[in-house]
Amino acid sequence: MNDVGNDLVEIVTTDGAVIGTALRREVHGNNTLLHRVVHVFVFNSKGELLLQQRSLNKDVAPGKWDTSVGGHVDFGESIEVAMQREMEEELGIASDKNVPVFLYKYIHSNDYESELVYSYSFTHDGQVVFNKDEIESVKYYPIREIEEKLGTGLFSDNFEHEFHNYLRLIGFS
Prior knowledge:
By secondary structure, the chain is of the alpha+beta class. Helices cover 21% and strands 34% of the residues.
């Protein structure tokens, strides 16, 4: 197993231009180093959103419910390749026929890190085999139920930021 803290990521400008590199462990804990990540909202055909409960061993938001898929873009990797890789690594989903749709990008920053987030949407009714090293559990939530539970501490701050962006996109907020 590789040591993820030693993975190399690209440091970027707010528009995504690469201006340097750093180890993942260096960007975590230093919110001045903006780096790229991908998120995927995985919906089923009923319109419910799959959320993952983060592992209790995570350094960021352990045990909190979070975006379906989320991960760093590795050094030299395209956004699209990172998105496909993360979907397969985290949920065992390969997007052969159904292609994820780009939604938007935004910056999420907190005391711990700053991320340039590229967000996608994907519909999937098949099997989900989640990575038990990174994820405690997964569950499909109706959108209304998520809205009702915002601000209760159930979700990661990153997911709440992301979800508000999504609601604005679809005209609900």
